[in-house]
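Page header: ASSEMBLY MODEL / two components / 506 residues total.
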Amino acid sequence: MKTFALFPGCSLEKMAAGYLSSTLETTSRLGITLQELEDWNCCGATAYFHVDELLAHTLCGRNLAMADKTGTDVIAPCAACYKNMYFTRKYLLEDPDLAEHINYALEQDGLKFTGASRVRHLLEVYAEDIGMEALKAAATTPLHGLKVVPYYGCQVVRPRKDHEDVEEPQFFEAILSAVGATPVDFPDKTRCCSGSLLVTSRTAALSLVRDLLQGAIDRHADVIATACPLCQLNLECYQQQVNLEFGTQLSIPVLYFSQIIGLSMGLSSRKLGIGDELVDPRPVLSLIGSQLAAETASAPQRPPKDDKALPMPARSKRS
Amino acid sequence: MESKITFSEEISNLLYAAHGNPIRDCIQCGTCAGTCPVAPFMDHTPRRLIAMIQADQKQDVLASNTYWFCASCFHCNVRCPKGIDIAGLMYALKRYSMWKGTYREGLVGPVFSETFAKTIMWSGRSYEPVLAPTYLFGFKPREFLQEAVTATGLMLKGRLPILPPRIKRLEAFKKVVDRVIPRGGAS
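Prediction written out in full:
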């Protein structure tokens, strides 16, 4: 049993709730305990580094200092959080002046950065700490015949963090193969999904998304697997906008890799948060067992409406 | 003797991550331009922008959309044969243009980034509904409608937060921030 601190990041609270639930469900079955970092704050995303670099490092420094206190390594499932935290830790360790400045600020919250806790991405933890044998053993319903695009996106492998193969990484493929799926040979697997350009430079962004979707469909993929909430949002939720913009009819489900692993363990789609997508994932589910498809079809999408309630979706809040 | 700092040095000074960043080492090979997925949408490719910085064409560099179109994918960084932190350079230009208010009119990026930063200052977390107005009103009616359809879809699936999240030790958090950037009116 191995324990990690978990830094969920803002997206996993709501937008990518399925990424969080599938992460918790699958890791707990593989002997990993995740403890959410108490009172974590936003990692600063990319926008914060546009405004002030020192402040952005301070924001990450606060989370890192809290992780240091836990005495375990910290996992960030969001690729952007991972990159920000990884590099802030690196710079703070390399530059005592910067660390001193930020520790002076963190004093106000009773915290101190020591660098004891390493920053890990979830994908990396599956590949290195859990390992292929354990994944294979846990895959009670191997996903034979399911063609999955291993979409790394940018920030899991870039900028180079350690010894990664930045041009031809293979660990995502290995994970997919371990759970019985067929990884699609996808040359654009590390090409950018456009990130936050979808709001700031829309035309450019939609064109990048289109190219990726077209590439996946041309290679007869059944589903795209992502390891980042922003990649999932861009590639999945903007398919309709891509089609309207370019007159295409592209449609392909996009799931988190942890959801795909969960399916191989025979976990229900509801437990894995599958069903909250805008592109219907049922074609994927039916390929690996009709029972799952039927379950999703009959599962209520929203809680039943309370007639007396105010006209607001009353959803339970995660504390 | 008057010593005047060049634009290239000014930008290099803004790069924490690239202390000693060798912008001047650029050999103009164009690997970055060939790699960049957004290059076709930029006024100038990253290679050309670096040449313009070296030539001290400050006005033209700052007026270009290039650095605001950078998606921070870091593909150029890992391929640059001279090890230049090109994405970091784009960040530095973004910060420079925001401080000086010299970015081109009509860009969404600066306003979006600033609002994002303020949201975190208020609550310690990001909150999508506050961010939307920073870019939605710049959209053409058709784009606005498409974005609204996507947002509605996400809302119906329960993927958009209703209430803004906030961290528990917000006061302490704000004091931490004040030690890094003293804000006007803050204690």
